[in-house]
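User
New here, explain this?
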Amino acid sequence: MRLLDGRDLLAPLPTVGRRFIDDLERSGLAGRGGASFPTATKWRAVAERSRGDAVILVNGAEGEPHSKKDRTLMIARPHLVLDGAFIAARVLRARRIVLYIGERHAAARDSMLGALAHRSEPERGIVSLAAAPPRYVAGAETAAVHFVDEGLATPTTTPPYPFQRAILVQNVETLAHVAALARSGEAPDSVLLTMAGGVTRPGVIEVELGTTVGEAMARGGGPVEAPRAVLVGGYFGRWMQADEAWRLPLTREAGIGCGVMGVLPASRCPVCEVAAIMRYLAAESSAQCGPCFFGLRALAEACAKPAELGRLKRWAAEVRGRGACKHPDGAAIFLSSAIEVFAREFEHHDAIHQVRRVA
C-alpha cells in the first residue's frame, strides 16, 4: 500500500484503543517531519499523561523552502490525514485537535477543511485551524505549540517536550501512515520525497523504503547535468558527494530529514549556494539567543571568505549544542557537511571564480 496511490475514501474509522500503541511500536513508524522520532514513544508518553485533556496538533506547516510533500499529501489524501488525527484523539483521549497548516498553503488548507466538512465523527467538533506563519522555525514542534498557545511561532526551551505535557505534535505524513496502519494492519513501507534542484522532473514522489537515492532520482527523470553533490534532507540535512549519495538506501536510519533531495549541478558554485542558504537560515533565526542570532550571521558572512576557512570550521563546531533551540544545530550540521564535501571549492573560492571570469 502507498499513500499517494490510493483513493481518498470517506469510510468509518476502525475501532482502536490503547493497545494500538503496541501496533505502532511493532511497525517501527518514525516521525516524517524531519527528526525521525519513534512515533510509539511519543504516543505512550502522551497516553500516560492524558486525563482526557490531550491535544493533537496536526503539523502541516512545511516551512522548509523546497519541501512540497506535506501539502501534496493534504491535497491528495485529506481524509487519510484526518483519519490519523481522529485515531490519535481516540487512543490518547484528546479534548482538542489543531490543524496547523502553513498560511501560504491555500490549496492544502482548503482541501483539509473541505474534507472535514464531510466528516460526521464526534472528533469533528473539537477541530480548530491555526495558520502557521511562513517561517522556517514555525514548523518546529515547540514553535507550533507556542503559536497555538501564545500567538508566537518561536521555539521554546526543552525539556519539557510537548509530549511530556500531553500534547502530540505529529507531521501530516506520519498521521497518514498511522491511519493506514489502523485500517490495514500495516503501515505503508514507503516515504514521500521532494525532488529539487537540478533534476529533470522536480516534485513529489513516493518510493519504497530501501530505494537508493539514485533510483529515486531516476524516477524524477535523472539530473539535468552532471551533479556536483546532493543535499539529503533539506536545509537541516547534509551534503553528500554525488556518487556516495546515489548508493544511499532510503531507510529509517538514513537521516533523510524532511525528505528533500536537492541536486547541485556541477555548473553551480557550491560555496555561493552554501553561503546563500546560510544567509537564509541566519535571517530565519528567532533571535532568542546569541549562538543563533549572532553565531549564524557570523557563519554566513564568513562562508565566502577563503581566509576564514579555519575559523569557519571552528565556529561551526562551537555553535552546536549552545542554542536555546535546535535551529543553530541544524544550520551547523548543514555547514559542517558543506565544508567537508566542498573543501577544495572553499579553499580556492576566489581563484576558481577568477578562472571562470576569464573563461
The mean pLDDT is 90. The first strand starts at residue 54 and ends at 60. The beta strands are 54-60, 94-102, 127-132, 167-171, 190-197, 203-208, 227-232, 238-241, 260-265.
